[in-house]
Design goal:
Helix content is 20%, strand content 25%. It is an alpha+beta fold. Strand 4 and strand 5 form a beta hairpin. The longest helix has 12 residues.
Length: 330
Amino acid sequence: MSREIKTLYVAEAEDGIRLDRWFKRRWPHVSHIQVQKLARSGQIRVDGGRIKPEARLTAGAAVRVPPLPEPGERPERSNELSDRDIAYAKSLVLHEDDLVIALNKPAGLAVQGGTKTTKHVDRLLSAWGEGMERPRLVHRLDRDTSGVLLLGKGPEAAKRLAGNFARRQAKKTYWAIVAGNPKPAAGQIDMALKKTGINDYEMMRPADPKEHGAEPAETAYVTLSRAAHRAAWMGLRPFTGRTHQLRAHMSAIGHPIVGDPKYGNDTSRELSGPLGLQLHARRIELDHPGGGKLIVEAPLGTSIRAGFEHFGFDEHEADPDPFAGVRRQR
Protein backbone atom coordinates (compact mmCIF):
# COMPACT_ATOMS: atom_id res chain seq x y z
CA MET A 1 0.00 0.00 0.00
CA SER A 2 1.25 3.48 -0.85
CA ARG A 3 1.62 5.51 2.39
CA GLU A 4 1.43 8.82 0.54
CA ILE A 5 -1.43 11.25 1.20
CA LYS A 6 -2.32 13.24 -1.91
CA THR A 7 -4.39 16.31 -2.68
CA LEU A 8 -6.00 16.24 -6.11
CA TYR A 9 -8.27 18.81 -7.72
CA VAL A 10 -11.54 18.19 -9.52
CA ALA A 11 -11.30 19.03 -13.22
CA GLU A 12 -13.75 21.40 -14.86
CA ALA A 13 -15.11 18.55 -16.98
CA GLU A 14 -15.86 16.61 -13.79
CA ASP A 15 -18.07 19.28 -12.23
CA GLY A 16 -21.08 17.57 -10.59
CA ILE A 17 -19.61 14.04 -10.52
CA ARG A 18 -20.28 11.89 -7.45
CA LEU A 19 -17.30 11.36 -5.13
CA ASP A 20 -17.48 7.55 -5.38
CA ARG A 21 -17.51 7.69 -9.20
CA TRP A 22 -14.64 10.19 -9.19
CA PHE A 23 -12.61 7.65 -7.19
CA LYS A 24 -13.65 4.76 -9.44
CA ARG A 25 -12.36 6.57 -12.53
CA ARG A 26 -8.91 6.96 -11.03
CA TRP A 27 -8.59 3.79 -8.96
CA PRO A 28 -10.94 1.16 -10.47
CA HIS A 29 -9.49 -1.52 -8.18
CA VAL A 30 -10.73 0.30 -5.05
CA SER A 31 -14.19 -1.03 -4.14
CA HIS A 32 -17.24 1.07 -3.37
CA ILE A 33 -17.22 -0.30 0.21
CA GLN A 34 -13.63 0.84 0.68
CA VAL A 35 -14.51 4.34 -0.54
CA GLN A 36 -17.49 4.38 1.85
CA LYS A 37 -15.31 3.42 4.82
CA LEU A 38 -12.64 6.00 3.95
CA ALA A 39 -15.25 8.75 3.61
CA ARG A 40 -17.14 7.71 6.75
CA SER A 41 -13.97 7.75 8.85
CA GLY A 42 -12.97 11.18 7.54
CA GLN A 43 -9.89 9.97 5.69
CA ILE A 44 -11.32 11.30 2.42
CA ARG A 45 -12.03 15.02 2.71
CA VAL A 46 -13.06 17.71 0.26
CA ASP A 47 -11.90 21.28 0.88
CA GLY A 48 -10.98 20.17 4.42
CA GLY A 49 -14.42 18.84 5.33
CA ARG A 50 -16.03 15.43 5.60
CA ILE A 51 -18.11 14.24 2.67
CA LYS A 52 -20.47 11.40 1.83
CA PRO A 53 -19.60 9.01 -1.05
CA GLU A 54 -22.72 10.02 -2.98
CA ALA A 55 -22.07 13.77 -2.65
CA ARG A 56 -21.32 15.65 -5.86
CA LEU A 57 -18.04 17.48 -6.43
CA THR A 58 -17.55 20.92 -7.89
CA ALA A 59 -14.80 21.91 -10.30
CA GLY A 60 -11.66 23.05 -8.49
CA ALA A 61 -12.49 21.29 -5.22
CA ALA A 62 -9.47 19.89 -3.33
CA VAL A 63 -9.84 16.18 -2.56
CA ARG A 64 -7.68 14.66 0.17
CA VAL A 65 -6.80 11.13 -0.95
CA PRO A 66 -5.50 8.86 1.84
CA PRO A 67 -3.13 5.90 1.27
CA LEU A 68 -4.86 3.39 -1.02
CA PRO A 69 -4.12 -0.30 -1.67
CA GLU A 70 -2.19 -1.14 -4.82
CA PRO A 71 -3.92 -3.19 -7.58
CA GLY A 72 -3.91 -6.85 -6.56
CA GLU A 73 -2.99 -6.08 -2.96
CA ARG A 74 -5.12 -8.03 -0.48
CA PRO A 75 -7.05 -5.79 1.92
CA GLU A 76 -5.77 -5.73 5.45
CA ARG A 77 -7.71 -8.04 7.78
CA SER A 78 -7.61 -5.50 10.59
CA ASN A 79 -11.36 -5.75 11.18
CA GLU A 80 -11.14 -9.33 12.44
CA LEU A 81 -11.76 -9.25 16.17
CA SER A 82 -10.05 -11.42 18.74
CA ASP A 83 -12.04 -13.18 21.45
CA ARG A 84 -10.75 -10.53 23.82
CA ASP A 85 -12.05 -7.72 21.58
CA ILE A 86 -15.47 -9.39 21.38
CA ALA A 87 -15.65 -9.82 25.14
CA TYR A 88 -14.64 -6.17 25.60
CA ALA A 89 -17.34 -4.96 23.17
CA LYS A 90 -20.02 -7.00 24.94
CA SER A 91 -18.86 -5.69 28.35
CA LEU A 92 -19.84 -2.15 27.29
CA VAL A 93 -23.53 -3.05 26.82
CA LEU A 94 -26.00 -1.15 29.02
CA HIS A 95 -29.13 -2.34 27.19
CA GLU A 96 -29.83 -4.74 24.34
CA ASP A 97 -33.05 -5.92 22.72
CA ASP A 98 -34.13 -7.03 19.25
CA LEU A 99 -33.77 -3.54 17.75
CA VAL A 100 -31.43 -1.46 19.93
CA ILE A 101 -28.08 -1.70 21.66
CA ALA A 102 -26.93 0.97 24.12
CA LEU A 103 -23.25 1.06 25.02
CA ASN A 104 -21.45 2.83 27.85
CA LYS A 105 -18.59 4.25 25.81
CA PRO A 106 -15.48 4.86 27.91
CA ALA A 107 -13.47 8.06 27.62
CA GLY A 108 -10.57 7.64 25.20
CA LEU A 109 -12.33 5.24 22.82
CA ALA A 110 -13.12 6.86 19.45
CA VAL A 111 -16.50 6.18 17.86
CA GLN A 112 -15.06 5.94 14.34
CA GLY A 113 -11.61 5.30 12.94
CA GLY A 114 -9.17 7.57 11.17
CA THR A 115 -5.68 7.53 9.75
CA LYS A 116 -4.08 6.92 13.18
CA THR A 117 -7.04 5.32 14.94
CA THR A 118 -7.37 1.55 14.72
CA LYS A 119 -9.32 0.82 17.91
CA HIS A 120 -12.79 2.36 17.81
CA VAL A 121 -16.44 1.51 18.42
CA ASP A 122 -17.25 1.09 14.73
CA ARG A 123 -14.68 -1.71 14.47
CA LEU A 124 -15.94 -3.39 17.64
CA LEU A 125 -19.45 -3.69 16.19
CA SER A 126 -18.24 -6.76 14.30
CA ALA A 127 -18.65 -8.53 17.66
CA TRP A 128 -22.34 -8.86 16.77
CA GLY A 129 -21.68 -10.14 13.23
CA GLU A 130 -21.31 -8.73 9.74
CA GLY A 131 -23.71 -7.67 7.02
CA MET A 132 -27.30 -7.32 8.22
CA GLU A 133 -26.27 -8.62 11.66
CA ARG A 134 -23.88 -5.74 12.22
CA PRO A 135 -25.31 -2.92 14.38
CA ARG A 136 -25.26 0.60 12.96
CA LEU A 137 -24.11 3.84 14.57
CA VAL A 138 -26.87 6.45 14.72
CA HIS A 139 -25.03 9.29 16.52
CA ARG A 140 -21.57 10.08 17.89
CA LEU A 141 -19.69 11.08 21.01
CA ASP A 142 -16.29 12.76 21.12
CA ARG A 143 -13.38 10.42 21.80
CA ASP A 144 -12.88 11.73 25.34
CA THR A 145 -16.59 11.95 26.24
CA SER A 146 -17.95 8.92 28.09
CA GLY A 147 -21.52 7.66 28.32
CA VAL A 148 -24.56 6.44 26.40
CA LEU A 149 -24.06 5.58 22.72
CA LEU A 150 -26.99 4.07 20.81
CA LEU A 151 -26.83 1.56 17.96
CA GLY A 152 -29.56 0.28 15.67
CA LYS A 153 -29.94 -3.42 14.89
CA GLY A 154 -30.75 -3.58 11.20
CA PRO A 155 -31.32 -0.73 8.71
CA GLU A 156 -34.93 0.00 9.67
CA ALA A 157 -34.23 0.30 13.40
CA ALA A 158 -31.17 2.46 12.67
CA LYS A 159 -33.22 4.68 10.36
CA ARG A 160 -35.89 5.25 13.02
CA LEU A 161 -33.34 5.98 15.73
CA ALA A 162 -31.41 8.34 13.48
CA GLY A 163 -34.69 10.07 12.64
CA ASN A 164 -35.17 10.85 16.34
CA PHE A 165 -31.83 12.62 16.38
CA ALA A 166 -32.39 14.38 13.05
CA ARG A 167 -35.77 15.71 14.26
CA ARG A 168 -34.20 16.65 17.61
CA GLN A 169 -36.67 14.48 19.51
CA ALA A 170 -34.03 12.67 21.57
CA LYS A 171 -33.67 14.13 25.07
CA LYS A 172 -29.99 13.97 25.94
CA THR A 173 -28.66 14.83 29.39
CA TYR A 174 -24.93 15.32 29.84
CA TRP A 175 -23.08 15.83 33.09
CA ALA A 176 -20.05 18.11 33.10
CA ILE A 177 -17.72 19.73 35.61
CA VAL A 178 -16.86 23.28 34.58
CA ALA A 179 -14.53 25.96 35.86
CA GLY A 180 -16.23 28.57 38.08
CA ASN A 181 -19.95 29.09 38.68
CA PRO A 182 -22.07 30.09 35.67
CA LYS A 183 -24.47 32.98 36.30
CA PRO A 184 -27.37 32.70 36.06
CA ALA A 185 -27.25 29.20 37.53
CA ALA A 186 -29.55 27.92 34.78
CA GLY A 187 -30.28 29.15 31.28
CA GLN A 188 -29.89 28.57 27.57
CA ILE A 189 -26.99 29.32 25.25
CA ASP A 190 -28.11 30.23 21.74
CA MET A 191 -24.89 30.80 19.85
CA ALA A 192 -24.01 29.87 16.27
CA LEU A 193 -20.79 27.91 15.78
CA LYS A 194 -18.42 27.63 12.85
CA LYS A 195 -15.83 24.94 12.20
CA THR A 196 -12.20 26.03 11.77
CA GLY A 197 -9.00 24.04 11.22
CA ILE A 198 -8.74 20.45 10.02
CA ASN A 199 -8.18 16.97 11.46
CA ASP A 200 -6.75 17.06 15.01
CA TYR A 201 -6.77 20.87 14.93
CA GLU A 202 -10.48 21.13 14.12
CA MET A 203 -12.36 23.46 16.47
CA MET A 204 -15.70 25.21 16.70
CA ARG A 205 -15.77 28.93 17.34
CA PRO A 206 -18.64 31.33 18.04
CA ALA A 207 -19.85 33.01 14.87
CA ASP A 208 -22.40 35.47 13.59
CA PRO A 209 -25.43 33.44 12.43
CA LYS A 210 -25.19 35.12 9.02
CA GLU A 211 -21.53 34.20 8.56
CA HIS A 212 -20.82 31.67 5.82
CA GLY A 213 -20.47 28.21 7.33
CA ALA A 214 -22.01 29.18 10.67
CA GLU A 215 -24.54 26.71 12.10
CA PRO A 216 -27.15 27.47 14.77
CA ALA A 217 -26.45 25.77 18.08
CA GLU A 218 -28.57 25.72 21.26
CA THR A 219 -27.74 24.29 24.69
CA ALA A 220 -29.71 24.41 27.94
CA TYR A 221 -27.77 24.22 31.20
CA VAL A 222 -28.52 23.89 34.90
CA THR A 223 -26.19 23.93 37.91
CA LEU A 224 -26.50 20.73 39.94
CA SER A 225 -23.89 21.46 42.63
CA ARG A 226 -20.92 23.69 43.36
CA ALA A 227 -17.43 23.19 44.77
CA ALA A 228 -17.23 26.65 46.38
CA HIS A 229 -16.35 29.14 43.63
CA ARG A 230 -13.84 26.85 41.97
CA ALA A 231 -16.02 24.53 39.91
CA ALA A 232 -19.60 23.51 39.23
CA TRP A 233 -21.30 20.24 38.34
CA MET A 234 -23.61 21.00 35.43
CA GLY A 235 -26.44 19.32 33.60
CA LEU A 236 -26.28 20.12 29.87
CA ARG A 237 -28.90 19.45 27.21
CA PRO A 238 -28.03 20.11 23.55
CA PHE A 239 -31.00 20.87 21.31
CA THR A 240 -28.75 20.75 18.25
CA GLY A 241 -25.94 18.35 17.43
CA ARG A 242 -22.93 20.39 16.36
CA THR A 243 -19.36 19.10 16.66
CA HIS A 244 -17.93 19.90 20.13
CA GLN A 245 -21.09 21.93 20.84
CA LEU A 246 -21.14 21.59 24.63
CA ARG A 247 -17.41 22.16 24.95
CA ALA A 248 -17.46 25.24 22.69
CA HIS A 249 -20.57 26.73 24.32
CA MET A 250 -19.32 26.39 27.89
CA SER A 251 -15.98 27.86 26.89
CA ALA A 252 -17.72 30.76 25.11
CA ILE A 253 -19.57 31.79 28.29
CA GLY A 254 -16.33 31.72 30.28
CA HIS A 255 -16.79 28.36 32.04
CA PRO A 256 -14.90 25.73 30.04
CA ILE A 257 -15.24 22.07 30.91
CA VAL A 258 -12.48 20.86 33.23
CA GLY A 259 -9.90 18.64 31.51
CA ASP A 260 -10.56 20.05 28.04
CA PRO A 261 -7.23 20.78 26.34
CA LYS A 262 -8.87 22.28 23.26
CA TYR A 263 -11.39 24.74 24.68
CA GLY A 264 -9.90 25.37 28.12
CA ASN A 265 -8.50 28.60 29.58
CA ASP A 266 -5.83 29.24 32.18
CA THR A 267 -8.29 28.77 35.05
CA SER A 268 -9.66 25.45 33.82
CA ARG A 269 -6.18 24.15 33.00
CA GLU A 270 -5.01 24.92 36.53
CA LEU A 271 -8.08 23.14 37.94
CA SER A 272 -7.70 20.14 35.64
CA GLY A 273 -4.36 18.82 36.81
CA PRO A 274 -4.25 15.15 35.73
CA LEU A 275 -8.02 14.97 35.13
CA GLY A 276 -9.35 14.04 31.69
CA LEU A 277 -12.30 15.68 29.98
CA GLN A 278 -15.12 15.97 32.53
CA LEU A 279 -18.02 15.37 30.15
CA HIS A 280 -20.35 12.38 30.38
CA ALA A 281 -23.45 11.46 28.32
CA ARG A 282 -25.48 10.49 31.38
CA ARG A 283 -28.97 9.81 30.02
CA ILE A 284 -30.94 9.55 26.81
CA GLU A 285 -34.68 9.32 26.27
CA LEU A 286 -36.34 8.82 22.90
CA ASP A 287 -38.96 6.80 21.03
CA HIS A 288 -38.07 3.13 20.77
CA PRO A 289 -38.17 1.94 17.13
CA GLY A 290 -40.45 -0.90 18.25
CA GLY A 291 -42.85 1.41 20.13
CA GLY A 292 -42.91 3.03 23.53
CA LYS A 293 -40.06 4.95 25.16
CA LEU A 294 -36.41 4.00 25.56
CA ILE A 295 -34.60 5.51 28.54
CA VAL A 296 -30.98 4.58 29.20
CA GLU A 297 -28.60 5.90 31.85
CA ALA A 298 -24.84 5.37 31.94
CA PRO A 299 -22.98 5.07 35.25
CA LEU A 300 -19.98 7.31 35.70
CA GLY A 301 -16.87 6.26 33.83
CA THR A 302 -13.40 6.18 35.36
CA SER A 303 -12.40 9.62 34.06
CA ILE A 304 -15.38 11.65 35.27
CA ARG A 305 -15.64 9.65 38.50
CA ALA A 306 -12.15 10.91 39.32
CA GLY A 307 -13.45 14.46 38.86
CA PHE A 308 -16.45 13.85 41.12
CA GLU A 309 -14.17 12.49 43.82
CA HIS A 310 -11.70 15.35 43.42
CA PHE A 311 -14.34 18.10 43.79
CA GLY A 312 -16.56 16.22 46.28
CA PHE A 313 -19.69 15.83 44.14
CA ASP A 314 -22.23 13.08 44.91
CA GLU A 315 -23.85 11.64 41.79
CA HIS A 316 -26.93 10.57 43.77
CA GLU A 317 -27.91 14.19 44.49
CA ALA A 318 -29.12 14.90 40.94
CA ASP A 319 -32.59 14.31 39.55
CA PRO A 320 -32.63 11.71 36.75
CA ASP A 321 -33.85 14.42 34.37
CA PRO A 322 -32.88 17.86 35.69
CA PHE A 323 -34.57 19.43 32.65
CA ALA A 324 -38.02 17.92 33.26
CA GLY A 325 -40.57 20.64 32.59
CA VAL A 326 -37.97 22.96 31.02
CA ARG A 327 -39.00 24.12 27.57
CA ARG A 328 -36.62 25.06 24.84
CA GLN A 329 -36.44 28.83 24.36
CA ARG A 330 -37.21 30.03 20.86
